[in-house]
């Protein structure tokens, strides 16, 4: 989908945020509104949202404003339904679960990250937001190449394991969500020295071990770092890269005593749940330690959506963020210039996150 359209969509949602917060305190966690020019039910209740997202296409279908759907095209994955959506979703999920593919992505991503970090100098600022986007562009090309080679190989055997729609889907505008995740992690870590120290120690320990063994890091090494994973989880909670998702009711449905009338739009507002103090103590404070004894599969934590359309790229997103963080903290110390997170019209850093780096001398 065109990124300008997303911007317009996000503008509409953010403009509505103030109304939502006002309505939430006035009417409770689920309320009616006309925020998208359509009669809508806004849910800041995680349980209600979970039930809606788990429903099948007889109850709810994806819904996005008319201007967007016209331009997204009828076959966009965000709009398709039923068996086709399940097939494509399954294929993408399986694709990213393949350990062979994860190994290849890990090798290439390490190479890209290493190469771009080699060019960093200590006498000029590094703009983290731009650097993460550049690494990401290379990853998109890599995935494209893998798919094309799979298709070429399968063509000889008669049928391709990767249909055309899947390629399109993988290259959708979501390509910026992982760079935003990496940039926000660096921002939050710059503001929280205790978390940065623990993250660095954990990653240095693994690096030393691997150096001694003379082995490169594998994808499972990256994902096995517990504190690094809590840093990514907390960044996803606070950052709210996707603030919520939309559906449309196909029939009158009652959930937890709330009636969602047929034809109405339903907006599952994740950001509100992630920043609700009844779910998280001090919700605006970056606190990765909160996840050490918390259930990540709780319905109060849904940065990747849930149910039928749970993001199939979630493992890949975590893997890429882990690789980036590992190479960054084990090679550099840095001082961040003053910058702020902007949520409007999309989540990003106001000044592109300038930092001054110094190569670490410790092994
Ligand atoms: C931080 C990174 C990411 C976040 C926060 C994120 C978030 C989400 C969310 C919330 C949804 C649900 C949309 C809905 O219910 O309407 C979704 C769906 C999807 N995501 Fe992600 N995503 C991320 C990374 C990725 C990556 C790296 C890929 C692929 C390379 C990807 C591919 C998809 C696809 C194909 C869908 C549609 C699934 C379906 O409708 O069955 N995402 N994502």
Shape: globular
Biggest sheet strand order reads: 1-2-8-5-3
Instruction: Measure the end-to-end span.
Output: 45 Å
Bound molecule kinds, no repeats:
protoporphyrin IX containing FE
| Count of alpha and pi helical runs | 13
CATH topology: the name is: Cytochrome p450
Largest sheet: 5 strands, mixed
Helix content: 40-55%
Note down, in words, how this protein is organized.
Belongs to the cytochrome P450 family. InterPro entries: Cyt_P450, Cyt_P450_CS, Cyt_P450_E_grp-I, Cyt_P450_sf. This is 3-epi-6-deoxocathasterone 23-monooxygenase. There is one protein chain. The chain starts with a helix and ends with a strand. Helix 8 crosses helix 11. It is built from 13 helices and twelve strands. It has helices spanning about 5-25, 45-55, 65-70, 80-95, 100-120, 130-155, 165-170, 175-190, 195-215, 220-225, 225-240, 270-275, 315-330; strands spanning about 30-35, 40-45, 60, 125, 245-250, 255, 260, 265-270, 330-335, 340, 350, 355-360. The strands form four sheets. It has a five-stranded mixed β-sheet, sandwiched between helices. Helices cover about 50% and strands about 10% of the residues. By secondary structure, it is of the alpha+beta class. It has one domain (about 5-360): Cytochrome p450. It binds protoporphyrin IX containing FE (HEM).
């Amino acid at each position: 989908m065109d990124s300008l359209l997303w911007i317009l969509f996000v503008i509409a949602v953010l403009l509505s945020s103030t109304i939502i917060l006002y309505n939430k305190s006035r009417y409770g966690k689920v309320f009616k509104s006309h925020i998208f020019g359509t009669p809508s039910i806004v849910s800041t209740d995680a349980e209600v949202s979970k039930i809606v997202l788990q429903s099948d296409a007889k109850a709810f279908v994806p819904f996005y404003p008319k201007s967007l759907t016209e331009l997204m095209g009828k076959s966009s994955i965000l709009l398709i339904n039923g068996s086709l959506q399940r097939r494509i979703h399954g294929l993408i999920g399986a694709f990213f679960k393949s350990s062979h593919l994860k190994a290849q992505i890990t090798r290439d991503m390490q190479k890209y990250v290493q190469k771009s970090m080699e060019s960093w100098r200590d006498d000029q600022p590094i703009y983290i937001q731009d650097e993460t986007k550049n690494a990401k562009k290379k990853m998109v090309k890599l995935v494209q190449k893998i798919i094309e080679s799979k298709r070429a190989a399968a063509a000889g055997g008669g049928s391709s394991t990767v249909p055309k729609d899947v390629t399109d889907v993988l290259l959708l505008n979501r390509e910026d969500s992982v760079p935003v995740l990496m940039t926000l992690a660096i921002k939050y870590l710059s503001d929280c020295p205790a978390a940065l120290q623990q993250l660095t120690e954990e990653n240095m320990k693994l690096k030393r071990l691997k150096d001694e063994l003379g082995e490169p890091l594998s994808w499972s090494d990256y994902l096995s770092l517990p504190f690094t994973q809590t840093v990514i989880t907390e960044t996803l909670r606070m950052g709210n890269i996707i603030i919520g998702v939309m559906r449309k009711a196909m029939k009158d449905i009652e959930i937890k005593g709330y009636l969602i009338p047929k034809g109405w739009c339903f907006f599952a507002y994740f950001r509100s749940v992630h920043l609700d103090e009844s779910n998280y103590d001090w919700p605006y404070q970056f606190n990765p330690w909160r996840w050490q004894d918390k259930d990540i599969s709780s319905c109060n934590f849904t940065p990747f959506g849930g149910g039928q359309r749970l993001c199939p790229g979630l493992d890949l997103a975590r893997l890429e963020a882990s690789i980036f963080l590992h190479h960054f903290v084990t090679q550099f110390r840095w001082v961040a210039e003053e910058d702020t997170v902007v949520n409007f019209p999309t989540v990003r850093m106001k000044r592109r996150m300038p930092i001054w780096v110094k190569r670490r001398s410790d092994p």
